[in-house]
Write the structure tokens for this entry.
Amino acid sequence: MTYLLTQMFLYLLVAFLLGLLLGWLLWRYGKPTGDEIDAMRAENSRLRSDLETCNMKTARLEAAADAPRAASVAAAPVVAPAPAVEAAPVAEAAPVEVKEASKPEGLSAPRGGTADELQLIHGVGPKMEGMLHNLGYYHFDQIANWTAAEVAWVDDNLEGFKGRVTRDKWQPQAKVLARG
């Protein structure tokens, strides 16, 4: 019995020493080299500058989109309320006729061979940009000039993204981007 215990102890000691050796080798040679560290720092710096550029573009677009709203609120004249007048009974109003949604006119290819970067519009990613290109919409001015019926058609026909045009307010953004 003591023979077996001694033999097991020796095997455990050998396994422990091999584990220490393997751990030391991994620790010693598993560290990144100076060149790898420099490359990681350069990539980190590039990504930070890209993030800062995106933040600046976002702030500029939000400010440009809010400017027309702020100007219209500031330019609105203040009107004193009229004295209350008793209204005569009104007949029931006729229902408002809603135009049927119609497909906006698209292009077969981008003008000048180059499409606008539609991903600058909040809510348009690479997949959505591809869908818009497939429908023939390549430029900000196309989106900016859609009528309400055309917006309704696009909202209804974006597979998996129904209502996105209205919800993310593409038209005001596209108007700003088309100007600029």
Remarks:
- The chain is about 60% helix and 0% strand.
- The mean pLDDT is 82.
- Helices lie at 2-29, 34-75, 126-135, 140-144, 148-157, 164-167, 170-179.
- The CA atoms of residues 118 and 124 lie 7 Å apart.
